[in-house]
Amino acid sequence: MKGYQLSPEKYQQAVAYARARYRLHFFAAAYGMLILLLVLGWRLAPEFRDWAERASSRRFVQALVYTSLFLLTTSVLDLPTEIYRHWLARKYDQSVQGWSSWTWEWTKEQLISIVIFTVLVWILYGVIRRSPRRWWFYFWLAALPILVFVVFISPLVIDPLFYKFEPLAPKQPQLAAEIERVVQHGGLVIPRERMFEMNASTKLKSLNAYVTGIGASKRVVVWDTTIAKATLPQTLSVFGHEMGHYVLHHVPKGLAFFAGLLLVGLYLGFRGMQGVLARWGGRWAVRGADDWASLPVLLLLLSVFSFLAEPAGNSFSRYVEHQADVYGLEVIHGIVPNSGEVAAEAFQLMGEVNLSDPNPPEFIRVWLYSHPPLAERLIFARTYDPWSKGQAPQFVK
Fold first, then answer.
1. What are the phi and psi torsion angles at 338 (to 5°)?
2. What is the pTM of this model?
3. What is the separation of C-alpha 156 from the centre of its chain, rounded to a whole number of angstroms?
4. Terminal CA-to-CA distance of the chain, rounded, Å?
5. Domain that holds residue 211
6. Which among 14, 189, 194, 344 could disulfide-bond with 219, CB atoms 3.0 to 4.6 Å apart, if both were Cys?
7. In what helix (H) or strand (E) does residue 173 lie, and over which residues does it extend?
């Protein structure tokens, strides 16, 4: 059976690009931890704390000053990895974004991070002062609605700061009409006002679509690059996959899963910070867990946990992505002729454009892949056929 295939030139490019990104991922993780150690070793953390405390006696103002200084310092130190990441995307023809535009986006990201992290840091240290032994749990309870709120407002407030979104139906009436057929086949109502086209082509060449938001902000977004490069049936296949995320409630399920990981990480951070500060707190001039200057210690411990938890998080992600693949094949069956082959062709196109690794090593697949490898998805699309076997489809009856 024909699988994911690339020309010799494309194959070499895909492998080289993939290997470079794998190396960058592990380097960036280690380098990020090193930055936190440098902030502690150079005693920048207590220096920022002193500036914050001199600026105001109000705790929120202190949180704002400290968080701004800390985030800007770590972000500037991390710039080499971010610059290299964008350079790679440009080198391998995945991005057309110029450096001035990229720099402006980086600046906006820092400003957004300062706003969100200031609130979280302010709450965190308020909870630590009031409950030194249970702060990890109470902060988790306090952080959850904030994180849900951020997920809710992202498609409404944050995402439009970086890309232009337009209602899909006025720009692509034929596609919108066909999407409605698919939606009806799935027994679902997705209002047209929740279908959007994202103007990705101003910055990217890759193909994609996704589901974002929660509750009233939930929406399906299709990149204009996908619409431009894929046929209508192939685009319906991509939409079917994204509709699967919508119908199968993968956004709230993902929030619940990662909220559980966050709780574990905070508890381990609480336990680890006690020992770390007892041993090195004096050397770093950190007065205690309730000191603003302890933030890089907690973030360092959370970074280690987050890195080690990547296989678990990505295993969950691959599971829901496979579910969405199954749903997508089922929901376009009977609407798109030869739907399995069309889905396989869509995967092939995405692989060619996105330079997907044809054969990722097993370790890399388990550790880094949030989706099943493209070659596996393509073969599955060509072989999944419960209808001819007299079997009931899994999701779309």
1. 50, 50
2. 0.95
3. 17
4. 28
5. 165-249+319-383
6. 194
7. helix 173-185
